[in-house]
């Protein structure tokens, strides 16, 4: 069963399941396959700096090395804001109610850089739509939790409560 988001309007809660609207399903996609003159499929590879050693796709990884040349494990990293203050982890939006009480401005809507669109569904979608006005509501959203949330806009009742997500600010 799909995880649900709990939306709250006043004292009433609505549990709705988000379904990501996939770009591929809307517009389709193509794949390019390169073949040799005799029809064999080619595989991607790279070359080292000398140009003499072939490196297969996926054989190179990004890592971090300290000044002394020792490998640094990711678990040792600490996220900080631009001002140097440690960034605190935030909870997933699935773990707490999302209160729909903050109406978005036209400027907020137009400034949003959309990174994903989710359509909300559930037994209470009709009741939620009947309680929503023609306004668009904004709320912080984090799918998995982590170090930053996204601004979200929950569209009004005429748009079937589709939620758009965009970056709030950089950490």
What layout of secondary structure does this protein have?
Blueprint: E1 5-9, E2 12-20, H1 23-27, E3 45-47, E4 54-56, E5 64-65, E6 71-72, E7 98-99, H2 106-111, E8 114-121, H3 125-131, E9 137-141, E10 150-154, E11 162-167
Parallel strand pairs: 1-7
Antiparallel strand pairs: 1-2, 2-8, 3-4, 5-6, 8-11, 9-10, 10-11
Structure description:
- The model has no long low-confidence stretch (mean pLDDT 82).
- A hairpin with a 5-residue loop joins strand 5 and strand 6.
- The protein has 171 residues and is mostly beta strands.
- The strands form three sheets. It has a seven-stranded mixed sheet with strand order 7-1-2-8-11-10-9.
- Helices cover 11% and strands 29% of the residues.
- The protein has a domain of 99 residues.
- The chain starts with a strand and ends with a strand.
Quick structural gist:
The protein has three helices and eleven strands, in the order E-E-H-E-E-E-E-E-H-E-H-E-E-E.
Could you name the key traits of this structure?
single chain; 171 residues; mainly beta; 7-stranded mixed sheet; 3 helices; extended
Query: What structural category arises from helix and sheet content?
Result: mainly beta
Shape: extended
SSE order, as H and E? Answer: EEHEEEEEHEHEEE
Q: How much of the polypeptide forms β-strand, as a percent range?
A: 25-35%
Our Rg estimate from Cα atoms comes to 23 Å
| Ends distance | 33 Å
């Amino acid at each position: 069963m799909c995880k649900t988001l709990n939306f709250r309007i006043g004292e009433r809660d609505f549990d709705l399941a988000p379904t990501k609207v996939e770009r591929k399903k809307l517009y389709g996609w193509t794949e390019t396959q390169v073949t040799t003159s005799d029809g064999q499929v080619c595989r991607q590879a790279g070359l080292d700096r000398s140009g003499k050693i072939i490196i297969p796709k996926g054989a190179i990884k990004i890592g971090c090395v300290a000044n002394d040349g020792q490998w640094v494990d990711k678990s040792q990293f600490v996220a900080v804001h631009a001002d140097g203050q440690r960034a605190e982890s935030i909870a997933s939006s699935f773990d707490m109610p999302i209160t729909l009480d903050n109406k978005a401005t036209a400027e907020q809507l137009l400034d949003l850089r959309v990174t994903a669109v989710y359509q909300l569904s559930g037994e209470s979608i009709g009741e939620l739509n009947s309680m929503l006005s023609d306004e668009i509501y904004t709320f912080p959203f984090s799918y998995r939790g982590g170090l930053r949330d996204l601004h979200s806009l929950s569209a009004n009742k005429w748009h079937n409560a589709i939620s758009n997500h965009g970056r709030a600010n950089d950490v």
